[in-house]
Amino acid sequence: MSKTYTNPTIPFKINIKLVEQKHFVIIGRPLSDDKRFTFNFQKGLLSDAPNIAFQFDVNCRNRVIAMNYRTDSTWGREIREITKFPFSEKE
């Protein structure tokens, strides 16, 4: 069963159950002149220093994609290994 959210308020927050082999498709454009966007799959509120199962951070200006996780307020090793930057500042 899939659900579509059109033009959600930002930041977009929803409760989901993360299970193995569940897929998420995110389509959109950054607001106005923003050159960076981040997706966090996390447990808890931002103010609670949540555990983040997966963070996907895109910086279009520097052509960098960074991925990471956080457990008990401690960040893991950031991964920045990509062979092709799949985003454009104009798209």
From TrEMBL:
Q: Would the keyword Thylakoid be found if you checked this record's keyword annotation?
A: no
What's a Gene Ontology MF term here?
Answer: carbohydrate binding
| Domain Galectin span(s) in chain numbering | 10-91
Q: Which UniProt keywords apply?
A: Lectin
This chain's protein is named Galectin
Ranked from the top, the taxonomy reads: Eukaryota, Metazoa, Spiralia, Lophotrochozoa, Mollusca
